[in-house]
# Entry
Amino acid sequence: MKIESMDSRDGFSKGDRVQRAGGGPWELPQDGVVQGWFTFEYAPTEWYCCVTWGGRYTGRYQAREIEHAARP
# Structure
């Protein structure tokens, strides 16, 4: 099976600043940056967003789990 990837999906594009959706508190820094979207071989219809937090920690989220960060 093929793994697909793209730079934008569901209103989020590569380079967008995001934060975790919901109330928190979260252990990760809140300055997240979208690195792109991808699927896993075992779940080809589920798209995940790769987010780097604080330039160091990487997480994988679906669109419902993140939101655009408020501009300072």
Summary: The chain has no helices and eight strands. The mean pLDDT is 88. The radius of gyration is 12 Å.
